[in-house]
Specification:
By secondary structure, the chain is of the alpha/beta class. The chain is built from ten helices and ten strands. The chain has a seven-stranded parallel beta sheet, sandwiched between helices. The protein has a three-stranded mixed beta sheet with strand order 5-8-9, with no helix packed on it. The relative contact order is 0.13.
Amino acid sequence: MTMAAKHFENKTALITGGSRGIGLAVAREMSKRGTRCAIAARGAERLERARASLAADGFDVLTIQTDVSDAESCANMVARAVEEFGRLDILVNNAGVSMRATLDELDAEACRSMVDINLMGCIYPTLSALDQLKKNKGSVVFTSSIAGLIGLPTATIYCATKHALRGFADALRCEIGPCGAHVGVVYVGFTENDPEKKVVSASGGAVPPGPAHMTQEEVAREFAELIRKRRSRAVLSPIGKLAEFAGRLSPDIVGEAIVFSRKTKLNERLGIT
């Protein structure tokens, strides 16, 4: 067994949004490394398809139907994982939704729903898992994005939730780091999506996701390495690293560049809509 795999030996992980996409890829990568995994999502059918896909590769996972926007559902999710495994070492807060619309196209309910899923949907599971994470000196990891590094038009509420995750993670690290627990954030760039995935528009319709710069498998390996090395952050893809650098250098210049690209339709020519 390699040192990389040995780190995950006898560990248990719970992954929200684990029925497809990055979450499913993380579950597969962690299972390869010897971790016992539970995956959680809202849809029972998708969970079963994910379980069957992992089983075909020889991995046995626990599936838990969960609504991450509901505190009681999250508490039951964590309790079920601990009941099954006897402990919880790793929590990956991956569940989230994206919407492409300007703020004046949204109503209050759409804004509240996104905050409930993207922000509270990370806080509730973490709150319920906190005792286990501290006791076992475990890891809690949050899936963020380029939208958590800079502001992006047509993604106001999404950006707000992803920026909030950074503050939550930084503060949490100060609280549970002294106990030996690890807190990390992965800033994902444009990633290969499942064929069925769509980004919701203001009207409730669907628009195609952005271009892919990394595969789900590549992203999943980055998650595993962040956990293994207990790093506080990982910024993925060249465009993500550029966004981070530019945001640190001058937020004003970044904002002006984004406005210019939209006016000249440069973003569309580059495939960034």
